[in-house]
Write a structure and sequence with these properties.
Layout lengths: L3 E3 L5 E2 L15 E3 L1 H21 L4 H7 L4 H9 L7 H14 L4
Antiparallel strand pairs: 1-2, 1-3
The chain binds zinc ion (ZN).
Length: 102
C-alpha cells in the first residue's frame, strides 16, 4: 500500500491528493511506505542482535515474537538461507514440544 506523509505537519495519508498537497496545511506530500518498511526491518534486526548479545537463544526470540507454527513454516520454507540448519531445528523442536496452544 502506498503511504504519504505531509512534509510540514507530518500527517499520514493512505493516498495522495491530485496535486500532492496536504488537505490540512497545504504542505507537500511525500511517499514514505518503502522507507518506513525498511526502517521497521532495520529495527527488528537491531532488536534481534541486542537480544542475542544479551544471551537470548533463538527460541527465546521466537517466543518473544509470539511467532506461530504457521508463520514459522512460511519463514523457514521461504528465503531463510541466512539461518543455519541447526537453528532451524531448534525452532522446529520448540514448536513440536510446545504443542497446539492456539
Ligand atoms: Zn500538512
Amino acid at each position: 500500500m502506498r503511504k504519504y506523509i505531509c512534509t510540514i505537519c507530518n500527517t499520514d495519508f493512505d493516498m495522495t491528493t491530485p496535486d500532492d498537497t496536504c488537505p490540512n496545511c497545504g504542505g507537500r506530500l511525500e511517499k514514505v511506505g518503502k522507507a518506513r518498511t525498511e526502517l521497521i526491518k532495520a529495527e527488528q534486526q537491531l532488536f534481534g542482535f541486542v537480544a542475542s548479545s544479551k544471551g537470548d537463544s533463538i527460541v527465546d526470540l521466537v517466543s518473544a515474537m509470539k511467532l506461530t507454527q504457521e508463520e514459522w513454516n512460511k519463514l523457514r520454507d521461504g528465503d531463510a538461507s541466512y539461518m543455519p540448519d541447526g537453528l532451524k531445528q531448534l525452532v522446529d523442536e520448540y514448536f513440536t514440544t510446545k504443542g497446539e496452544d492456539i
